[in-house]
Automatic annotation (TrEMBL):
Domain Protein kinase: 50-308
Keyword Cell inner membrane appears in the UniProt entry: no
The keyword Transferase belongs to this UniProt entry's keyword annotation: yes
Family annotation (Gene3D superfamilies): EF-hand (1.10.238.10), Phosphorylase Kinase, domain 1 (3.30.200.20), Transferase(Phosphotransferase) domain 1 (1.10.510.10)
PROSITE patterns referenced in this protein's UniProt entry, alphabetically: EF_HAND_1 (PS00018), EF_HAND_2 (PS50222), PROTEIN_KINASE_ATP (PS00107), PROTEIN_KINASE_DOM (PS50011), PROTEIN_KINASE_ST (PS00108)
Known cofactor(s): Mg(2+)
Reaction(s) catalysed by this chain's protein: L-threonyl-[protein] + ATP = O-phospho-L-threonyl-[protein] + ADP + H(+); L-seryl-[protein] + ATP = O-phospho-L-seryl-[protein] + ADP + H(+)
Family note: Belongs to the protein kinase superfamily. Ser/Thr protein kinase family. CDPK subfamily.
Protein name stated in the entry: Calcium-dependent protein kinase 1
Keywords: ATP-binding, Calcium, Cell membrane, Cell projection, Cilium, Flagellum, Host cell membrane, Host membrane, Kinase, Lipoprotein, Membrane, Metal-binding, Myristate, Nucleotide-binding, Palmitate, Repeat, Serine/threonine-protein kinase, Transferase
Organism for this UniProt entry: Stentor coeruleus
């Protein structure tokens, strides 16, 4: 097969704004499949699905603790926010739901993954991946001396994430080493941006006015309450300054003194700790800490700065085999796409996706967090003729671009490159079937498909019946477990 507003919010169920936008479709071919589709808002008991572990941290609004997902045995982190705390501060309440909104949109190897969120009478619970290497802040303090090459590795990952967010119209507004976690305590550890509670969406020339951020890292224009996404670049510049010198550029006895210095914007690179830092690194710093945001670097410009060219990128050793996996990927049915997206985004482990993030970023030459037709073509052109590479890229985009945005996003890349034996394991297929079979009848109906995949679209019933009919071999109008497994195993047959 080929690829062709009430004041009392204590007990109300609130949906993020992202769920409210509906796109009309009239055929299965037009149905977009995204990882965010499977980030469900649940009102059932958290403990029905999770074994709760120790608390990792406690704050004014709630706590973060470890937990193990009972069905998959995967360890995750749960951020719990008390409703009675949020109702005292509606600004914080809106920030909380903005975080869910934004994390549902995001699909990037350097940004924390949200799995699902729960609501009960007393609390909201965000279930995310667990990151065990600690804060970048702690790594800086514990290491003491970070070489320029190590700083470069960290900064590249941060800017990858920021560039991706900015391209999506998301500004973080609270970038700092405490909001950057390492998957392992290592100079080459994968880094994740967390805490999107202060984030917001921006469009074009829209001016943002609310003051968010942390004293050392806040941009001068934020203090003036007139700013755009370039405030994140200023914060990145401060982080780079800290990585290279061990201290922030603007200090003081209290926030007021720090803000006064930031408002002036002058800093020095002449002290002793800068003696061994390259001039090209200092030049990049100046461009990110440019006082005038109109003249300040964008994230994309920063990633293309000569500093990052001083250490030439190395292609991961497993890249050729990964490309071969992409070439052999075949899935044509819409439900196959949906199941693969669910498995990849919800069930795959860090071990199964190890190194794939680095490979993804090595192909993503402009650092925007997605693979374009040209980027794929340049990679395939290394081992193919022009015509062969063009045909293969067209086929892969038709097969893998499940949200139909013209690019291969990170989860789509994982789907097409992971080992099919682990992706379509017996356990994964059984878990996926149970997720689609919402009433536990042993069959998947058109209405169940619509309730899961159609929450974000307007569609007639025949769209869902058409998806069912392509898998429903006995013609009873539903999909049995056997029909479901046969459909997924065809991916193996078609890849042979």
């Amino acid at each position: 097969m080929g690829c062709s507003s009430s004041k009392n919010t204590r007990n109300m169920v609130v949906k993020p704004r992202f769920l409210e936008t509906q796109t009309p479709i009239d055929s299965p071919d037009k149905l977009p499949i995204r990882p965010g589709t499977f980030i469900f808002h649940k009102t059932s008991s958290l403990m029905k699905d999770y074994e709760l572990g120790p608390i990792l941290g406690q704050g004014a609004y709630g706590s973060v603790r470890t937990a193990v997902h009972k069905l998959t045995n995967q360890e995750r982190a749960i951020k719990t926010v008390k409703k009675d705390k949020l109702t005292k501060d509606m600004q914080a309440h809106s920030k909380f739901f903005a975080e869910i909104d934004i994390l549902r949109r995001i699909d990037h190897p350097n940004i924390l993954k949200l799995f699902e969120f729960y609501e009960d009478n007393k609390s909201y619970h965000l279930v995310t991946e667990i990151i065990k290497g600690g804060e970048l802040f702690d790594y800086i303090v514990g290491t003491g001396n970070i070489t320029e090459n190590i700083a470069m590795g960290f900064m590249k990952q941060i800017l990858f994430a920021v560039n991706y967010c900015h391209k999506l119209g998301i500004v973080h507004r609270d970038l700092k080493p405490e909001n950057l976690l390492l998957e392992r305590k290592s100079s080459d550890g994968n880094l994740k941006v967390i805490d999107f509670g202060a984030s917001t969406l921006f469009e074009g020339d829209k001016v943002l006015k609310n003051k968010y951020g942390t004293s050392y890292y806040i941009a001068p224009e934020v203090l003036k309450r007139s700013y755009n996404e370039k405030c994140d670049i200023w914060s990145c510049g401060v982080i780079m300054f800290v990585l290279l010198s061990g201290r922030p550029p603007f200090t003081g006895k209290n926030d007021e003194e720090i803000f006064e210095k930031i408002a002036k914007g002058s800093f020095s690179l002449m002290s002793q700790e800068w003696a061994n830092v390259s001039e090209v690194a200092k030049d990049l710093l100046k461009k990110m800490l440019e006082y005038n945001p109109d003249l300040r670097y964008s994230a994309e410009q920063a990633l293309n700065d000569p500093w990052f060219k001083t250490s030439p990128p190395q292609s991961p050793k497993s890249l050729p085999s990964i490309i071969n996996n992409m070439k052999s990927f075949h899935a044509s049915e819409k439900l196959q796409h949906a199941v693969l997206t669910f498995i990849t985004s919800q069930l795959s482990s860090k071990e199964e996706t190890k190194n794939l993030g680095d490979i993804f970023k090595s192909i993503d030459t402009n650092g925007d967090g997605k693979l374009s037709r040209d980027e794929l073509f340049q990679e395939f052109r290394k081992t193919m003729s022009y015509e062969e590479a063009e045909d293969e890229v067209n086929r892969i985009l038709n097969c893998v671009d499940m949200d139909m945005n013209g690019f291969i996003d990170y989860s789509e890349f994982l789907i097409s490159t992971m080992k099919k034996e682990s992706l379509i394991s017996k356990k994964n297929l059984e878990t996926a079937f149970k997720m689609f079979d919402k009433d536990g009848s042993g069959y998947i109906s058109a209405s169940e498909l619509k309730s899961i995949l159609g929450e974000n679209v307007k569609s007639p019933n025949n769209v869902w019946m058409e998806i069912i009919s392509k898998v429903d071999k006995d013609g009873d109008g539903e999909i049995s477990v056997a029909e479901f497994k046969d459909m997924m195993m065809k991916i193996f047959a078609d890849s042979a």
